[in-house]
Amino acid sequence: MGPQNTDFIVVVDYDHCSYCGACVAVCPPDCITLHDATLIIDTQACTVCKRCIPACPTGALSLAEVKA
Amino acid sequence: MKNAYDVVVIGAGPAGSIAARTTAQAGLSTLLIEKRQEIGSPVRCGEAAGRPSVEEFIPLDPKWICAEVHRYSVYNAEGDCISVPPEEDTVILERKIFDRELAHSAAGAGAEVVVKARATGLIRNGQGVEGVKMVVQGEPREVQATIVIGADGTESQTPRWAGLKSIPQLKNYYSAAQYLMTGIDIDPHICQYHIGWSIAPGGYGWVFPKGDRQANIGIVIWTDPKETKTAIQYLNEFIAARFPGKSILAQVVGGIPVTDVLPEMATGGYMVVGDAAHQSDPLTAGGITNSMCGGLFAAEVAVEAIKAGDTSAKRLKKYEQRWDAAFGKTYRRLFRIRQAVLKIPDAKLNRMITEASKLDAEKMSLKGIFFIVLKSHPQLLLEVAPYFLGQ
Asked: Of B250, B266, B37, nearest to B147 (Cα)?
């Protein structure tokens, strides 16, 4: 949400992700796409609102710092 | 697959299959698409459902009944328990087979069922929705539809594509994890619920028998940004404490939106049903047969609307009215109870169950038990009442 967060992105840990889509439903900008066994986050559209992180039952989503 | 249908249903879970079956039975050309390669997989829930409610839609078949439930037992963290008969006869389903049977019945009624077909968008005009953009086995397709029914589950995107406000608030969103476990020696006719903040904050744990010493064992917690542990971590702790060393045959996880009633479930040419419409019971998050009712209501409204030649938002809002008439009052009450229970401190909830466990509850309902407990312990009533009255 805003420039103060642009140094962080949400990343998926595929060892934990079960492709259930719990994150898709709560994402306001609709930037997460779920295929059969692929989860893709459009980091350009992502506002880093972080709602998806606690929604994930397996803890597969987290913030990662992007170094300039 | 044709280029145009009267009705396109997105998602072949119980709600979608019932919707497609109903419109096909009424003689409408119907397409039912499923994004996964296999209907019924992965399984999404604890698989408990009311037997009479299921029978309203499909005759019972031993192929997909794993267990019959005679009692529900509610445990607190200390292991005290109240045991009551369920409000209606309950069965544990084998969803993998059950879901496929429902899709099979939709196809039998004349619907065209296609798997590995993923909706990527809706085609809209000024009045509303008039078709679906999809990828079918890798090929992009556009299919026209007089009415689109979104049954795309908890990970639903179609309502927002249709312009409806459907994104759940985090406090009304459950995060759940479940294992199918084997070597579990429990009474094969009792469903266990385990409540307490240490076990499952804002939710509960469950142990549902699946026959042959197998059980669905799961945890559902509320989605709280301050929570540091995930649903599956709580589940692992629950298993370590109660079923150590037992084998896990399958793992299922997912989110469940719960609310009293979603304010908007229809717009021009579009209706949303099932988990996508937050149609699970707001207290227990159970929703198989309720979702099937949602699918039925939407399909009935679709049939009437297409016959009348009017698929405007105003016309399809009849579906919202039908849902509200059937479930609105109950869901609003259950949602209030959920909000109240969430605020009761663990110690008080624990004591209520401990007191209730001392009663001879052989023939009593859960409501009756809590009434007696509260009546015989006025102090507890005074302590708990504000949480309910505060709403």
From this structure: B266
Q: So what's the pLDDT on residue B87?
A: 79
Which option is the CATH number for B170-257: 3.30.9.10, 3.30.70.141, 3.40.50.920, 3.40.50.280? 3.30.9.10
* Closest by Cβ to B254, choosing from A35, A57, A59: A57
Rounded distance between C-alpha atoms, residue B161 and residue A40, angstroms: 18
Q: Are residues A57 and B156, on separate chains, in Cβ contact within 8 Å?
A: no
- Give the closest-approach CA distance of A53 to chain B in angstroms: 8
B chain contacts of residue A28, beta-carbon cutoff 8 Å: 167
Q: What is the mean pLDDT of residues B268-290?
A: 93
Residues β-bridged to residue B4: B144
CA gap B276, B375 in Å, rounded: 41
A6: contact with B, CB 8 A cutoff: no
- Which residues does chain A have within 8 Å of residue B223's beta carbon, measured at their own beta carbons? 26, 54-55
Read off the pLDDT band of B391 (50, 70, 90): very low
Q: Which two tokens stand for residue B51?
A: 């037997």
Specify the fold of A3-65.
Alpha-Beta Plaits (3.30.70)
What's the pLDDT at B19? 98
Rounded-to-integer distance, Cα B341 and Cα B391, Å: 11
Instruction: Catalogue the E-assigned strands of B199-269.
Output: 204-211, 214-222, 247-257, 266-267
Q: Which fold has domain B4-47+94-168+260-339?
A: FAD/NAD(P)-binding domain (3.50.50)
